[in-house]
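#data-curation
PF: Archiving a pair of folding outputs for the training set. Convention for this channel: one message per protein, sequence first, structure tokens after, nothing in between. First:
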Amino acid sequence: MAKKPGIKKNLFYSVSYQILTIILPLITAPYVTRVLGAKSLGIYSKSQALAHYFLLFAMLGVNNYGNRSIARVRDDRSELSRTFCEIYAFQFITAIITSSLYWVYCIGFSTQNRMIYMMQTFYVMSGLLDVNWCCFGLEKFRLTTTRSMVVRFLTAVAIFVLVKGKDDLWLYTFIISFSHIASTLVVWPFIKKHIDFVKPTWAGIKRHIKPNLLLFWPVVAVSLYNIMDKLMLGWFSEDEEVAFYTYAERIVTIPTTLILALDNVIMPRMSNLYATKGNNDKSVRFLMDNVMLFAMFMAGAMGFGLAGVADVFAPWFYGSAFTRCGFFIILLSPVIVIKAWAGALRTQFIIPTGRDKIYVFSLTTGAVVNLILNALLIPKINGVGAIIGTIAAEFAVCFIQFFMCRKDIDIKNYMTNGFSFCVIGLIMFLAVEALSHISSHALVTMAVQVVCGAIIYCVLGSFYMVKIRKNPVLVNEGLKMLRIKYRFQ
């Protein structure tokens, strides 16, 4: 039997994969915002959001269910092959139906920008071939990460070389859409090495339908307030507004993803500790308390820090036509704080202790809140309405998760820390905002803002943790990383 990859390596590749998905699109963003413009990118964002919903229904809950099912039988090649073929057969059927329905929509219902919507067909059809869930179940994280890196790099090169003006929106859409097909195709040679293809029976396929659908609902709930806002903006507002909102959201997603990626690294250890030592063990509480402290510290720094530089950053990075993005980034920055808190609680307590009902209920509530507020506010105040809906939805998810876990966690301690870091972040924001006109050069201004903001936040945050909370663990870890020998007691 082949040697299994280590957990640390798998976690490294998993975190790298998450970071890669947000960084590489940003490499092309300054170019495409200037070449294609806000209106064209708004059209693309609307078409991609709609196509993504069709892809969700093509895949249903197979990413989570397939991953788990493959992991359970991976040491038995015969059972592994049978399980894979049954699940994939179900996926293939749903993907064929969904892709056909999307094509019908493009032909019969997309009266404007039909070519752009048709180019998204490749994106929807990637559901026919996407078997990443099998790779993850077999713990082949390196394969998916390296494959994604190569495909995304080639995609970026193609955009820079081929996309030259607003008339190339169809080509830009085709390149991005086809890259999803390409990224699924390169996995199949690996699959053929580990899977013996057998003819699935209907009874075998049917046994996977119900659990697949059960895991599909959380995916839909998340998508309702992460994607539906773009569709509703497209229905009730201008294409430019969709682009401003989309590209502001992309920036805000970066710090959130980084914080959650670090949380996910700790989650397997927390799961093991809860299973072996229980909820009340001192080592479990110590680790959870410090992970939560770190998440709240980082959320305050990134949320308020990003808001402070947004007005300077957006027009410098995206171009002067995207100045409104800066305003949207400021309004969206509370999402960083809220999602970091909820994400830390989810990865350090809710998921490791198997309290999935709390997660599903909170997501469902967030989706309902978002849909109601979007329907009420977007027609009246456009992108600002979508932002209010997003913040309210994320707050609802966070509030419900903390409230339903209040008897099992030190909620008073977490709320005190969270509020304190928000106050410190606000002080930093005011200082950084005051420096926004210090130079006529945007890069110089942002450099001064970042350095001054980091110093203010770190000094005040360290004082709070060491002198007020009497918990210098994070500060000492920071000193250790800087190779400073002094340690606080």
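PF: Second:
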Amino acid sequence: MATPRYKRILLKLSGESLKGDRPGIFDDQRLVQYAEQIKEIRDMGVQVGIVIGGGNIFRGLKGAMKGFDRVKGDQMGMLATVINSLALSSALAAQGIKARVLTAVRMEPIGEFYNKWRAIECLEAGEVVIMSAGTGNPFFTTDTGSSLRGIEIEADVMLKGTRVDGVYTADPEKDPTATKFTDITYDEVLARNLRVMDLTATCMCKENNLPIIVFDMDTPGNLRKVIGGEEIGTLVHN
């Protein structure tokens, strides 16, 4: 088994990816695939923190566009991330992996109230730690939540698992001439206005020197390859 390049990671997953191509909220097979990939790297000795979006259930910003109060819409989105976190923790448990759900707003016994030291304690004990409910505040995306949590738990890298295989000059699903970056600096991401993450999240990672690897999580085995140091996806760095 390859020696992992990173000791502690923050894995950011999108809620939409959990839906897969099937109707409904979850693709059960996708959850199993994700759990299997996470188990692979946990078994390599990697400490794994996870943040999941809630877009397969509800997005606060889209709700606001339809007339929802923005604060209540964002709170609904936070709850959506908790549902996704519970689903993934269940899938991990089925793989024999102990996973702990921490929430940014109090909702015991659904999950423990998040704090940095508790998260690190659980990581060092070999548990997968899923940090849900965003930052606990409206007007912040789960991208920003994952940046904050990655910085707080002192992760070596943020791995952003998406359905595309890296960062491109334009949206490759809309522009067939788009070309992929092997690596790119935060300054260039900002100058080109590339949507790697939202602006707040990008600036937080830049200011705190947290590199990001954007890669295709939907291809089984890719997470292990990234951890093993294979150059797939795009590295975003200072």
